[in-house]
Amino acid sequence: MDDSSSQKVKKVLAPMVRVGTLPMRLLALEYGADLVYSEEIIDRNFLDCYIHNNEKYSIKEWISNKTQLCFFSTCNQERDHLIVQLGTSNGNCAWKAAEKIIPFCRGIDVNMGCPLLYSTKGGMGSALLKTPEIASDIIKTLRRNLPNEYSVTAKIRLFPVLQDTIDFVHMLANSGVDAVAIHARQVHERAKDKANWSQLAQIASHVVNVPLLGNGDIFSLQDMQRMKDQTGISQWMIARMAQWNVSVFQGTLDCINNVILRYAKLAEETNTYYGLAKYCIQQMIKYQKWTRTEFASKVSISK
Ligand SMILES: Cc1cc2nc3c(=O)[nH]c(=O)nc-3n(C[C@H](O)[C@H](O)[C@H](O)COP(=O)(O)O)c2cc1C
């Protein structure tokens, strides 16, 4: 994501475990997303795997040596738009993992925001916000080793004190990061808590040397414009709304039945595990029920 290409990147599919697999990413691109992040993948998975060229589906599959299960897949259509998000707590492991994936993506992102124990207990995710020297080493190691055409990015959350977030972003910029996605919530906050766009605005006014992606409570094209007006940030990362109706990227929402049908077709065409596809479709159906009942009020509460 160098300066010239980052200008073109506007709408981004956020990383989402279980949801952001190949069919969802392809559908997000069809509906107008500029970049798609993979679900977080823990670096050690890439260290003990082989790549299977699945000719029947025209996809590549990363298969664990231990379990013989596929933990990641991709295809040519998304090559120039795909950012693979790593869960990592070590620069060398991150680089070894990145080596297994870089021919097939556009960049590597480091998850520095996940609050869940499975991530933080290994020093990954939001634990990196407390270990800036390790976070810096991961970014420096990736930037030093990756060819320039691949971006190195990070996704973080807000610190309790604004200045600490600003300092952390500056530290990442000095370590060579190409862009930082900021989920505008603190580590202890959950989706029901309102995203703090006023902090995003203050961060954006202090950080001028690295592109920022704004994330949190974007549910529509109007929200993207509102975030731009309120914060100055014009690169937007969307998670839950994409999970519910990924046509959010085109502006006007497509009928959810069309979205579900197309998703199911893409899942079939990409050899996606049935249980995973079923889970994603259930999330879309849930949204459809909400739109009929209380979704509108839920969203307005969170704003
Ligand atoms: C189902 C789900 C899975 C998620 N998985 C990840 C993940 O793998 N990596 C990550 O950095 N954030 C993850 N997140 C957080 C989102 O990327 C995003 O930061 C958060 O949901 C706020 O954006 P939103 O208000 O648009 O939902 C996940 C969120 C959801 C809803």
UniProtKB/TrEMBL annotation:
GO molecular function annotations of the record: flavin adenine dinucleotide binding; tRNA dihydrouridine synthase activity
The DUS-like FMN-binding domain, residue ranges: 13-286
CDD domains with a match to the protein in the record: DUS_like_FMN
EC number: 1.3.1.-
Superkingdom classification of source: Eukaryota
Alphabetical keyword list: Flavoprotein, FMN, Nucleotide-binding, Oxidoreductase, tRNA processing
Name of the top EC class for this enzyme: oxidoreductase
Binding locations of FMN: 15-17, 85, 155, 183, 239-240
Residue ranges the record marks as coiled coil: none
Family: Belongs to the dus family.
The name this protein goes by in its record: tRNA-dihydrouridine synthase
Organism: Galdieria sulphuraria (Red alga)
